[in-house]
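Person: I have long wanted to understand how a fold can be written as tokens. Underneath my words sits a plain record pairing an amino acid chain with its backbone structure tokens. Those tokens are not coordinates but codes from a learned vocabulary of shapes. I should like you to check that the lines agree and flag anything odd. The protein I mean follows directly.
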Amino acid sequence: MRKLFLLSLTSERLKKKRKKKEKKEKEKKEKEKKRKEKKKEKKKMEKKEKKKKEKEKKEKKQEKKKEKKKEKEKKKRRRRRRRRRRRRNITFALLKGKVLIRIPEAVNQKWDEDLNTTVVQVTAVDGFS
């Protein structure tokens, strides 16, 4: 009887020990699970952040490209304007009764203070009277 009693006591102790151990294991697993979840969440957030940065970078690049294109177009326009002006070596501006002509080879050019440019007095030009 005593042996049985002792056996039951030890079995009780063993049961308690086992339960304690199981509880500890369970807690450990829970902690591990939480840790993994946190890690996963962190990774997800980092990925999201990276994606956002990439998007911003792309947008910035496109914006820069657009600016460059605009600038190029501006330069093109300027160049075209300059070429047109150069091609038209005669510019007519009927101001104060004078015909303003810009010809590099013009002989009788005079500086006009009012117009602030060189002026040639012309009586008749082909196609103009």
In short: The chain has a mean pLDDT of 79. Residues 16-86 form one domain. The two ends are 144 Å apart (CA to CA).
